[in-house]
Specification:
alpha/beta, disordered N terminus
Length: 780
């Protein structure tokens, strides 16, 4: 831990004196007495200091201004008005130790022949009671040579000034004494603002700026992934500026402050209780504390009462190890002896010109401006081997990182675990003992990091460190812990079941191995088998009246076309290829036109047969003989063949991966390159079916016990209904389901024709053979 000093010098007819004001900036006093310390209090209007030891006369006198006591809150304002003052009470033991350290340092300097040879140092220790007016009055009295002590000894003007222990006092004294070129050296004023040489040209300090300490703590929080941290800070410039710097450093890093509690010297008991309650109820397990050690003591007592033991504390230099105070005060006396040594030393013995043309100073003629310049060039090595020098107002930032470890006997000891040089952090993580009692880093988060496959969703009205984990939607992935967004997979990829990686989308088509493909295949094969059986029955009974009626040749051709219709459905099942895509539509279009053409010719023959029975129409049947019937079927079918040939030649269907369908599979289908060609094929089938339906409807009431026209009518109604329903179902069905819809339409219409036309005939042939006679057929 580093400290701040304030250097004051004075000159008198007897001996010049140098006042080093060493002050503790966090004014928490310990209400204990210390045997052997005697004080006599002297006062004048508006000020008061306590003279503990005037020391012996010397050529240069170093003064120490300590906050040996603290002043409790004033309740009655009348007691602070003249001629009254509020007496200082509550001796601070740690500050008293620092005073003894100063005494020891002065004696060591006097024993060292290499520092200020021939010059004797003495010291004067004063108590300012942490009151701004007394600090300012004491400094002016020393500089101006007017200061009352208990024995009324006057001290003449000093050439070297003071040292405030807080940033606010340092700012006040530096601005006040800058016009007098009086150097101000502090060992505790750590405000970053004091580094500004334009505003504070006469200020020096032996403690690094709080910027480095706060930044280091922020880096530790980020390093250990502590995203939810509580903070307790002193309600003064030290604590507020430290927390402000810490918040600026963690901005955008994902670290948040769960709470920030300020504690004040005047109300430390109440503030400690409030802060302890907040720590107890907060979910933050790491607590950052920027307070003086006595404030922390009050806080820890309150936490102990509440049995709060599972917290990790990040300590500032003000309380992490209070024993450093003694070392820093000693080094301070050594920002001061070296500066005087350089200021009073000439290149040769006697007086000779200095680099800037001025004469060398003597212990009886210390020049402030020259001493100010000498302070800027101070450079020496401390007893522990560290090089000391100023960089502007500051010294190079260097901190030791220590860990409070529990010894086997239950006591606490400080163990060095790392070091900070400037902004470089060197840390041995394996040597840290955490509150968990192991080497496992404690967890301090508001929300656990979102696992892969999820994303963070901030909670409304809460800090960014508090969030919910939302699973990625299908097609999106996150493969990192704590992802803010899910990433959408490329079009040919899809998310795996855990939404942690994009995997190639599986090619999907209506296959023979899946349930739907198996069912449709079975239905199609069954239809072809039934058609074959009917064909065999008709072939076996081909000379019977039922088979021979209405041209048996057309009946066999119709059965053949129906079998092709059933079998063409199988072409739609399986992995689409160039040839299968072309064969599908060609087989479908030609087979159905052949089937409908046969039915249409049969209907025309029925109408012609009965029309020829009328008087004067005997020659009508010669135009519908067997040759004309076969020719008509071939003519109607050839038109569809021409349409399919042109379509498949110019713009045939081709295999296509449908990437637009969102899912884990890519639909492989036969894409219609020309919708017009497919529409013409369907339109021609529809035209023939409608024409056949109309003719069959006209012939439905013709006299005959077995009139095929009525069965053709029913079959055509089913056929047309199926294909009218097919169009919207086909358009709205995604992927392979559109193929299934087309197969269903083919099978449904084929079964409708087979059952309506041939089941009645097979019933008579097989089960009612007595009705299979010409007499029965010609009944009327």
């Amino acid at each position: 831990m580093s400290w701040v000093s304030l250097l004051l010098t004075a000159w008198s007819s007897r001996a010049p004196s140098l006042l080093l004001v060493v002050m503790v900036s966090r004014d928490v006093g310990l209400r204990v007495g210390l045997e052997g310390v005697q004080t006599s209090m002297c006062s004048r209007w508006g000020s008061r200091v306590e003279d503990f030891n005037q020391g012996q006369d010397g050529e240069v006198v170093i003064g120490g201004l300590f906050n040996l006591h603290y002043q409790p809150p004033v309740i009655d304002q009348e007691f602070i008005k003249p001629p009254f003052y509020n007496p200082c009470t509550g001796l601070q033991v740690e500050t008293l130790k620092a005073a003894y350290a100063m005494e020891f340092a002065v004696e060591e300097i006097n024993r060292n022949p290499l520092i200020l040879p021939g010059v004797k140092l003495n010291y004067r220790i004063l108590d300012c009671c942490a009151r701004h007016p007394w600090v300012l009055h004491g400094a002016f009295s020393l500089v101006g040579g007017e200061m009352e002590s208990c024995n009324s000894t006057a001290i003449t003007p000093q050439s070297h000034v003071s040292g405030p222990s807080s940033s606010m006092r340092a700012i006040i004294l530096s601005r006040t004494l800058a016009s007098l070129s009086v150097p101000v050296i502090s060992y505790l004023a750590s405000c970053p603002c004091l580094s500004d040489r334009h505003r504070f040209p006469n200020f020096f300090r032996t403690i690094p700026s709080d910027v480095y300490q706060a930044k280091t703590m922020a880096r530790l929080a980020i390093l250990f992934n502590w995203t939810w941290i509580g903070a307790v800070f002193a309600d003064n410039d030290y604590g507020r500026l430290a927390i402000q710097t810490f918040q600026e450093e963690i901005e955008g890093s994902g670290v948040c402050l769960a709470f920030s509690e300020a504690v004040s010297r005047e109300t430390i008991e109440e503030d400690a209780k409030r802060a302890a309650t907040t720590v107890q109820h907060s979910t933050a397990r790491v607590i950052l504390i920027f307070c003086w050690f006595t404030d922390v003591g009050e806080l820890f007592l309150e936490l102990a009462k509440r049995n709060v033991t599972d917290r990790q504390f990040l300590a500032s230099e003000a309380w992490s190890t209070s024993s450093d105070l003694l070392q820093d005060v000693a080094i301070l006396n050594v920002a001061s002896a070296h500066a005087l040594h350089k200021h009073l030393t000439c290149p040769d013995e006697g007086s000779s010109p200095r680099d800037n043309g001025s004469t060398c100073s003597s212990p009886f003629n210390i020049k402030r401006k020259e001493l100010l310049e000498d302070l800027k060039r101070v450079n020496f090595t401390t007893p522990n081997g560290e090089e000391f020098f100023f960089q502007g107002a500051d010294i190079p930032a260097a901190y030791d990182l220590v860990n409070w470890k529990t010894s086997p006997d239950g006591s606490l000891k400080l163990v060095l675990i790392g070091r900070v040089d400037g902004l470089e952090l060197h840390l041995n993580q394996t040597s840290i003992q955490w509150t968990t009692g192991s080497n496992q880093v404690p967890i301090s988060v508001c929300s656990e990091s979102c696992p892969p496959g999820t994303r963070r969703a901030n909670r409304k009205g809460e800090p960014v460190c508090c969030f919910d984990c939302i699973p990625c939607t299908e097609g999106e992935v996150s493969n990192e812990t704590g992802s803010h967004q899910c990433r959408r997979c490329a079009v040919e990829f899809w998310s795996n079941p855990g939404n942690t990686a994009c995997i190639p989308r599986k090619v999907d088509f209506l296959s023979f191995n899946e349930t739907m493909g198996i069912i449709l295949t079975a239905v199609a094969v069954s239809g072809a088998a039934v058609t074959t059986a009917v064909f065999a029955v008709f072939l076996r009974f081909r000379n019977t009246p039922v088979v021979r009626a209405n041209n048996s040749e057309l009946s066999f051709l119709l059965l053949l076309s129906l079998k092709l219709c059933f079998l063409c459905a199988l072409v739609f099942i399986g992995r689409p290829s160039v040839w299968s895509c072309r064969l599908q539509q060609a087989a479908f279009g030609i087979s159905f036109v052949l089937c409908v053409s046969c039915l249409q010719v049969k209907t025309i023959v029925v109408l012609a047969a009965f029309r020829s029975a009328r008087p004067g129409a005997g020659g009508l049947m010669k135009w519908f003989g067997p040759g004309q019937q076969r020719g008509s079927v071939c003519f109607f079918t050839s038109i569809q063949v021409i349409i399919c040939t042109i379509w498949l030649s110019l713009s045939p269907p081709i295999p296509h991966r449908d990437l637009g369908f969102q899912g884990s599979k890519v639909n492989l289908e036969c894409a219609m390159s020309s919708v017009v060609g497919f529409a013409v094929v369907l339109g021609y089938i529809g035209f023939l079916a409608c024409l056949c339906l109309l003719l069959a409807f006209l012939a439905r009431k013709l006299p005959d016990n077995f009139n095929e026209a009525k069965f053709i009518t029913f079959s055509m109604l089913i056929f047309c209904a199926v294909w009218v329903a097919f169009v919207p179902a086909y358009i709205s069905s995604p992927g392979k389901y559109s193929v299934a819809v087309e197969i269903f339409a083919i099978l449904a219409s084929s079964y409708g024709l087979l059952l309506c036309i041939f089941v009645p005939k097979c019933f008579i042939i097989l089960l009612r053979p007595e009705r299979n006679t010409k007499k029965q057929l010609m009944g009327r």
